[in-house]
Amino acid sequence: MDRSEINIINIDAYDKLAPLYKERTITTGRYPVLMPITLDDGRQMQFFFIDSTQYNFGMAFVDFLVRKGGLSPLRMLDIGTGAGNTLSYFADGGYKTVGVDISQKMCRIAKRVSPKSEILCGDIFDFPMIDRCFDAITMMSMLCQLPTSDAQNLLARVKQWIKFDTGYIYASTSVEENTEAGVFTKTMLGSTMLNGKSVQRFRTNYTISKFVELLESAGFEILMSSITYDKDQKSNRQFQGYICRVRS
Ligand SMILES: C[S@@+](CC[C@H](N)C(=O)[O-])C[C@H]1O[C@@H](n2cnc3c(N)ncnc32)[C@H](O)[C@@H]1O
């Protein structure tokens, strides 16, 4: 299945899901606990063990790290922005923000949620960006929307777009037990139905080790890892998230 076929399926899915995504919020809330996780290659990695309401946990850390080294005006790109919650967090913090999403309905909501942000509607691969332009790039549950080869391709571009010394990226996805890829029915609140209809979308599943491998093999160094300790009520999933910078 090539990307244009995948895009048709995912545009339809996320146009339908757009109203639900508006409800996702950003919290920096409670203090997290560290938990060691052993990867398939035998390495032990420390994860911040956070509750599911902290799905967007890494945002505040990315902001903090960028402010230490970035020069104003700070620029941020959110790929697969959805309802624009991440964008508004950075826009309210004074960043110049750009969000890209392939779903027109998501883009419309994102513009309302983050009016100060520039919203580009379309496939991220169709938007050439200037090299070393961004201080922060976020991809929340976005890389899993692509076949692994396209995710690698996108990360290669992200590596060009992020500022080499002072920029940080944040990537997250759900924690899965297998690495299957294909068109799956989305489950919400334990049900596969949305307004009486099922929503099909393409996704690639990632175990913790496979997502770490994806980021590291693209030339990123992981600085902070987080995992939710309870399952998100809507999707019944745990999430993994990583703050990275370009490996020197
Ligand atoms: C799982 S949602 C995550 C939305 C948001 N980042 C969040 O965490 O709430 C994935 C988003 O990626 C968008 N998307 C999928 N493929 C894309 C592509 N090739 N280019 C841009 N956006 C894409 C979808 O339309 C959807 O809004």
Describe the structure.
The chain is of the alpha/beta class. It has one domain (3-246): Rossmann fold. It contains six helices and 13 strands. It has helices at 3-21, 58-69, 85-92, 104-113, 148-161, 208-217; strands at residues 33-38, 44-50, 75-79, 96-101, 118-121, 136-140, 168-174, 181-185, 193-194, 197-198, 200-204, 220-228, 239-246. Strands 1-2-12-13-7-6-3-4-5 form a nine-stranded mixed β-sheet, with helices on both faces. A two-stranded antiparallel ribbon has the order 8-11. Strand 4 (96-101), helix 4 and strand 5 (118-121) form a beta-alpha-beta unit. Helix 1 (3-21) runs parallel beside helix 4. The longest helix has 19 residues, at 3-21. The chain is globular and about 50 Å long. The model has no long low-confidence stretch (mean pLDDT 89). The site of S-adenosylmethionine has 19 residues, from helix 1 and strand 4.
